[in-house]
Amino acid sequence: MSQSNNSESAAPAGGRFFGRLGERLVKTRQRLGRGLGDLLGGKTRLDDELIDEIETVLLSSDVGLETTQALINDIAERARRADGRDVPILELLRRSLREQLVAHAEPLAVTGGSRPYVIMVVGVNGVGKTTTCGKLAHRLQADGQRVMLAASDTFRAAAVEQLQQWGQRLGIPVIAQGTGADAAAVAHDALEAARARDIDVLIVDTAGRQHTHAGLMDELKKVKRVLERLEPEAPQEVLLVLDAATGQNALSQLKHFDEAVQVSGVALTKLDGTARGGILVAIAHQGGHPIRFIGVGESEEDLRTFNADEFVDALLPANET
User: Fold this and answer.
1) Roughly what angle, to the nearest 10 degrees, separates helices 214-230 and 249-261?
2) Contact indicator for 106, 2 with CB cutoff of 8 Å
3) How would you class 208 by CB atoms within 10 Å of its CB: exposed for 0-12, middle for 13-18, buried for 19 or more?
4) Rounded to an integer, what distance in angstroms lies between the CA atom of residue 7 and that of residue 300?
5) I need a surface site. Which of 22, 27, 124, 251 has the fewest CB within 10 A?
6) DSSP letter assigned to residue 273
7) Within the chain, how many helices (H) and strands (E) appear?
């Protein structure tokens, strides 16, 4: 069964929805979107001075040097193909951004096969990982899935308590043990319990000490091995949660977690709270990892399926001047 865009479908259609998302992304839009809009509004010629100014805006928004250069090269090639015709540079940039992002906008699909469908959620402390687990559980439950949560972040009592609060709020079971318990054992017990209760989706929250700490990666590998041993198809999804405010460090986290547990999707949180949301473009440019969700607020509905068209329209409207 594919996951539907439950919360999005309830939002107003067309420009009103883009406007609402634009309001959520106000800080990023002020720096990146409005900066580029003011810079490029009405311009149809790309010269060295304009290229330097575009580069400055993109770099200041955490798009990154490699991604910035790729975007500028793409815009320059599009302008060259225009063969002297007056084509708004802003529109060329919109097209380039859209193509960069759309290739990596892939919603999470809870597909057929063995049940439960196991989502192992990973990421460093402070990125909103446990909150993302709760919001994801809410989305899946609203989509008609029977959901269970596993509190495998056993090193932080607050994380276990937070997950249990989500379970109480949503009316879904949470498998947990005491602080300091073996994280892999919690995951094992949760998967067995999910099977016994005919659960559709098991979401496993995991520890998140710094990604450079070898002990964390060893622990995550163990959790994954235990799940695989119990069910060869599990975990069907390894979702890495990244904080948009960490900028280019998010790329380093992606690399380390991918090497350890083979990340299959990314959720980028706190986009509403940072002016440097260009990291999302950098993640897409790096390639290989679908962007599943963006977090744009505190409410249960603010974990949204990432849609490239909506993001570009909210960030850089076509009529921006």
Assistant:
1) 40
2) no
3) buried
4) 9
5) 27
6) G
7) 14, 8
pLDDT recorded at residue 319: 60
The H or E element containing residue 55 is helix 48-60
Rounded Cα distance, 54 and 35, in Å: 9
How many other CB atoms are there within 10 angstroms of residue 255's CB atom? 13
80-129 pLDDT, tens digit each: 887 666 778 888 888 998 998 998 999 999 987 889 999 999 999 989 99
Distance of CA 195 to the CA centre of its chain: 28
Tokens 């959790």, residue?
A: 223
The structure tokens listed for 3 are 């996951």
CB-facing half-sphere around the CA of 158: CA atoms within 13 A:
6
Give the strands of the sheet with 174-175, arranged side by side: 174-175, 147-152, 201-206, 117-122, 237-243, 265-269, 291-295, 303-305
Question: What pTM value is reported for the model?
Answer: 0.88
Q: For residue 66, report the phi and psi dihedrals to the nearest 5 degrees.
A: -65, -45
